[in-house]
């Protein structure tokens, strides 16, 4: 972006391409977060019944702390 600012005569096409790349990156992150949300929702639903010993949420969170 700084390179483009140093060239005020440059075409807006380059800035538009950079914005498009950033948009694609943001959209990919959002998609990843939505998948994570769905997984967490399913874990919460699955863990509403039963004992803590059988709870995938506890199991998953404990495993993540090991890494």
Automatic annotation (TrEMBL):
SUPFAM superfamilies xrefs: Putative DNA-binding domain
Ranges for domain Transcription regulator MerR DNA binding: 3-42
Signal peptide annotation: none
Protein name: Transcription regulator MerR DNA binding domain-containing protein
Domain of life: Bacteria
Source organism: Devosia pacifica
Gene3D superfamilies xref list: 1.10.1660.10
Pfam families, sorted: MerR-DNA-bind
């Amino acid at each position: 972006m700084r390179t483009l600012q140093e060239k005020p005569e440059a075409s807006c096409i380059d800035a538009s391409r950079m914005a498009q790349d950033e948009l694609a990156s943001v959209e990919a992150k959002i998609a990843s977060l939505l998948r994570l949300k769905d997984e967490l929702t399913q874990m919460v639903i699955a863990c509403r019944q039963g004992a803590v010993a059988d709870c995938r949420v506890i199991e998953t969170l404990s495993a993540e702390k090991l890494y």
